[in-house]
Amino acid sequence: MSDKVNKKTFVVPLRAEWYNIEVIEGECPADRKVSVDGIEIPKRERKTDSAGNEMFTIVTVKSGDLKCSLFLNPETGVIELKVNDILLSAYKKNYYKQYSCWVTSISGVSNRIVLDKSVMDVWVNKLFVKSDSFFIDNGNYVEFLINSVPIKIISVLLARGPDDPTKVLTQTLYINGTLADPPGPIVD
Q1: pLDDT, tens digit (0-9, with 9 covering 90-100), for 117-162
Q2: Is the dihedral of CA 37, 40, 44, 49 positive or negative?
Q3: How far apart are the first and last CA of the chain?
Q4: Domain-located, residue 91
Q5: What is the b/e burial string over 111-121, where b = at least 16 CB atoms within 10 angstroms of the residue's CB?
Q6: Weakly modelled stretches of the chain, pLDDT under 50
Q7: Which CATH number belongs to the domain containing residue 144 in this structure?
Q8: InterPro entries annotated for this entry (predicted)?
Q9: Is 142 part of a structural domain of the chain?
Q10: Structural domain range at position 63
Q11: Beta strand pairing call for 149-161 and 164-175
């Protein structure tokens, strides 16, 4: 009998929130444990289809439900996750088209800042933040406070390069007037 336990963690962003899904494989598929943010999903709340895919739903109050499906990739033999019927990697790619995210320290406190690019709404540590929006040439910016520290996110449309006429929307974060790191995934 083997004591080897396979453990895999998936991070799933949803609007200004993110969920840590942890999957622990036991000796056999029936021993699988699934938890979301440290809370185990009971086996009775997970459905298994004839192919062995295991489905469950993350119910959220503000952002809609996430329909998740765990499956064994036949080519790699690794457990993978689908969210709302698409692979997690494709789901995250779509997410980062709509949202920019920063993880930064302000006044000694770690903050996760999420910007909805379509409406310029801002969340800090999962909480909606009141902000002021302004238009500028080729874009706009939002201003808000975190612990009395002024924050500005500038969103502008820039040409990709001298030989490429297409444009790309970029976001830049300033903390108390100082340029911060570029946006990136909250966790990958």
Answers
A1: 989 999 999 899 999 999 998 889 999 999 999 999 999 988 777 7
A2: positive
A3: 34
A4: no
A5: bbbbbebeebb
A6: 1, 188
A7: 2.40.128.180
A8: FAIM1, FAIM1_dom_sf
A9: yes
A10: 6-84
A11: antiparallel
Asked whether residue 25 falls in the same domain as residue 80, the answer is yes
Closest CA to 98 of 115, 111, 83: 115
Which residue in 42, 39, 68 sits closest to 53, CA to CA? 68
Q: Distance of alpha carbon 10 from its chain centroid, rounded?
A: 10
Residue 171 to residue 160: CA distance in whole angstroms: 14
Alpha helices in 10-164 (DSSP H): 88-98
- Cα(97)–Cα(178) distance, rounded to whole angstroms? 25
**Residue 188 domain-assigned (yes or no):** no
- CA–CA distance from 130 to each of 126, 143, 145 (Å)? 13, 9, 9
Whole-number pLDDT of residue 187:
54
174 and 106 assigned to the same domain: yes
| Residue 78 DSSP class | -
Q: Are residues 110 and 65 in the same domain?
A: no
Integer Cα distance of 30 and 12 in angstroms: 24
Contact yes or no for 34/21 (Cβ under 8 A): yes
Q: Which contacts qualify for 137-142: CB closer than 8 Å, 24 or more apart?
A: 139/169, 142/115
- Rounded Cα distance, 103 and 99, in Å: 13
